[in-house]
Amino acid sequence: MAFAGVATDARAQTNPRAMIRLLKPGQPPKPCQLSDLQWLEGDWVGQMPFGPVEHVKLPIAFGHMPGFVRAMNPDGVVFYEIVVFAQIGATIAQQVKHFTSSLVGWEPKDTHLERFLVERDGDTYFFDGFTLSRTGPDSYTVFFLNRDGDKELDTLIVPFKRKT
Asked: I want to staple 21 with a disulfide (CB 3.0 to 4.6 A). Which of 123, 124, 126, 129 is the partner?
């Protein structure tokens, strides 16, 4: 099976910001079915600059694909995430809530981040500010735009492999 996606392009490694799309005000999200992400189900391990990251995705049920992330460094847990890919009308969105290692929420109590699908190119899904690109049957790469308000800081590249 061939995997169509621009993340395998060498340009993604030399200019990771090129892998990011932002949803413009008034721009409608792209149509997509949550079932297109069914391949994400399972246990994954990735590598962030400061250490390993584990990502567990549960099967799709009732229009939601929930998951859990644990990011670590040599000193311990850096943060946790509850991550849900959700079918919202004709499109999909990633919904995220972050927590410290002491389970203190980063986002205000009754809020979460929501990133809608901006574009899709084969097995590469461009959400608002982050991209998920399937690079093989048991691998994918995440490109994440770090921002401080409206100021862009850098683009993080996190490769993942399926745990066996």
From this structure: 126
